[in-house]
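Late entry, written up from scratch paper. The run itself happened at the end of the previous shift, but nothing got recorded in the book at the time, so transcribing now.
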Amino acid sequence: MGQKRRFNTHNLGIQKYRIESCQIQKCKTFSLTAFLYIFLRIRHTEIVMLKWRSFMKRKFGMADKLGYMFGDFGNDFAFILSSMFLLKFYTDVMGVSAAVVGTMMMAARLLDAFTDVTMGQIADRSRGNKKGKFAPWLLRMCGPVAVSSFLMYASWFAEMPMTFKIIWMFFTYLLWGSVFYTAINIPYGSMASAISAEPKDRTALSNWRTIGATLAATVIGVVLPLVVYYTDENGNAVLSGTRMSIAAFWCSVGSVICYLLCYFMVTERVKAETTKQKFSFMGLIGSLIQNRALIGIVVSALLLLLSQLSLSNMGAYIYPNYFGDVKGLSLASLIGTAVTLVLSAFTVQLAERVGKREMSAAGSLIGAAALIAVYFVHTKNVYVWLIFYGISYIGLAMFNLVCWAMITDVIDDTQVRTGQRPDGTIYAVYSFARKLGQAASSGLVGVLLSAIGYNTATAYDEKVVNGIYTITCIVPAAGFVLLALSLWFLYPLGKTKVEENARILKERRDRSGM
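Output as recorded:
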């Protein structure tokens, strides 16, 4: 028994040793595995960081152009939709007076004077992250701006009391335009000066941004009129509220997709310093008043939008009401797209040769001449009208293709003169001017439509439709003439000055090693 007990004890000792050895071996194996895992994770992180640094340092190229194009594609899924259809939707579907809608759009701009500048200050003072200073705002705001845009076209409230409809109209329009659109559009526009420091690259970005807007206008202007209108028992083309709501939903979905593409494709290369000085409203006003280049581009932007959106807004009236041909609205959008795309092929080279200001002023005079000519022709043939419309669109396209590069020229000029670079604030003031132009055109059109007696009962009367034709010709033509004068006599940044500013800033960056 004693031997057996000793034997069992001996065996137990061996087993205990083997178990401990096995545990030690497992522990070593686990430690080795853990070490290898940690090493590989660290190595993977290093590789990812190296790739990220390489990505951030890659040269300006097609990815930036396409990404920036998608950004404005997303913007204009909402902006052009409202420009082309919101006034028509509220007058014809919701039954609200055109004067009330126009007044709302003008009143909203008073709020924008504060929200735009506030967002510009927020953008200038934000620290940013690995994606940059401005790009993160696209990710944060793409959802809210899409939802608020969709809610503006709430056709399910068409039978509600008029007071409710007007309140809903004000609420959703302010939520979209003055809050969420501002919060995404100002960082997006400011981002152009952070993508590249070269004037030629910025002109290319402006060119591609306009291509994005043109493609959005094509989708909205060509496809939607064929979908959202129907023919009533009298043979008149009538806007469908339900179809308009569905169209607004899909435009909102498209805008989110485009914003995300912009976020992932664009690279911010130029370090934008965070503004740290205390904000002074009176100081800001004083600096803006002394900035002639900013005043010039603001006035020019206002007049451009007055011309462009008056022509666009009246398209929803002149084609179905005057010409009795809704397809003309789609053809007009298609012509505008074709003109813009053709001009975009050589705009960068032309602007580099003659100057952005000089090219834009010449285009504005071409647009004015075409609209004045078609006013005196007073044609009833929609195809004759479309020929003159296509010629007038040359004026719009020439300025539109380079106007975004012109605002970065203003930012450069401000930095040369003051030593500060308030990208967000300057772009905010410019954005406000564009919104003011949008509201001015819609408000003016609304007031003029009411003045000629337009409502749902008189929409097809001869006197009213002739008044529609006159408004469509004269208002944009006057805007074009004033735009040419503003560019030539008020805006000071011609070709020579822009090149001089670029040279000065390059020398400063070289000295500072940035």
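The longest strand covers residues 229-231.
(Scratch paper discarded after transcription.)
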